[in-house]
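Slide 14.
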Amino acid sequence: MRSRCASCVSPEYIPPSVGNYFLAIGIRFTSFEMIDSFILVTATFGHRFELDIVGLSTLVLPAPDAQSAGVTPIAEVQLALRATFIPDDGFFGISAQLTRNSFLLSRRCQLTGGFAFYTWFSGTYEGDFVLTVGGYHPQFSPPSHYPTVPRLGFNWQVDDHVTLKGSAYYALTPSALMAGASLNATWQDGNLRAWFDAAINFLISWKPYHYSADFHISIGASYTFHFFGTHHITAHVGADVSIWGPEFTGQAHVDLSVISFTIRFGSSGRNKIEPIKWDTFRQSFLPDDNGKICTINVKAGLTNKAAAKDSTDATTQPDSNNLGVVNPKIFCLTTDSVIPAQQVYRGEQGQNVLERAGATIAFNIGTMQLSNAQIISTQRIIITSDGISVEEQFDFHPLTKNAPAALWGSQVQPSLNGDQLINNLLTGYEIRAKRLDDAPHTDPINYAELQQAATLDREPDAFRWSSLIPFVPQRADDATRRETIHNTLYNNDVAGRRTAIASALLGDDSLNLANFSADDFLSAPQVNELIAR
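Slide 15: predicted structure.
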């Protein structure tokens, strides 16, 4: 037992890390008496948090008890699963892949393929995502951070002469949707060989709507013989068809071994993709509610959530004009716009341009065929107090996001190998109150001067000590303490004594508490039990 435990915690598999913790939970279960599964959930936390799930599921048809009677399974599908969530890296991904134990109809018909969904919500690749089943378009070069997924397909050696192969894929990225499939059949007996090939690949975009597809089909046979060397006789018929639209247009290239020719059909030439109008763009890609296009969120410092239920999302607040009660020391606001900004101004009037260092302010709307020079996108941040502009009392730091190139790029037609994202687009600002100067303080007194001064302990009756009445806090909730403070502020007897003390200390200066209210406290202070009585 000790040796097994020691091998489990070997540094090769779980290296030691001071301050980090590791938790693992595994479970094995059976579904519908046909699917046998095992899932292992692991979590690491301490310096950073990471959640991982790995699993393996096996489906056998018919059920395993039928195999004991000598029945050959119709199919066995074994799927390996992995999911990862890393908040610090802004990453969530789930992927699965068929193992080599998967087959259909015959153990010689091997099944392959997998799927993956990756999304990045912060960090270098923020805003990027990919969903794929079986991989990508043959002409698409996936970025290095995209998952590698094998084709969904089968490879069946039917007998010694016949081989069948098939594959399919589907992928969705920020720029395009792609899908395709292929089928290959080969028969070979000695030097005689025959084949059939078919393939199709689609590429589709939505706004503006555009599609393109390529079809390939080929049938052929060949014979190899040896007579004064090796010779091949081949005959084949094939066609490559390309279509695109709208309007529906295409061409077909036909190859008959001895002759080939091209046929064009549909609209003449390559159709120009018509850009969409602003109304279509607005309806398709922007929020229906104008108030959600540009929002204000309380990032830090919220102390009273009565008027702001969620400090990270202003859209959930019952009153968008009231952000709640905040702590000015750590108070932080953020603005966020769905539409990137080229210029951001401070104040209700004037051209006080805010700092934009590190932000990308040049972008296009390719779907409308609008260049950066044809776009005007500005934000203006106005902060007032009692109707007076106070923006100079705050610091502004630019916030950026990565956005799909299909939305803010320059191309009206999706590009397989173009940029998937426009990086660091200016979308908002982080707003914090400026740090105030240090509060005034008393200058230090020279120690030598204190030594030269006459000491009060040499004077008779210099000190008269009185018993200090201890402070006993009232046991009451926040509302009761506020009510007690309010009552003492406006009690005539208390107000008279307070005025007398203020006159003795302040002289001609008056102490005016007319505009003070107990509701002005962020949190009601403790109240002496004697006052409460």
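Speaker note: Residues 492-506 form the longest helix (15 residues).
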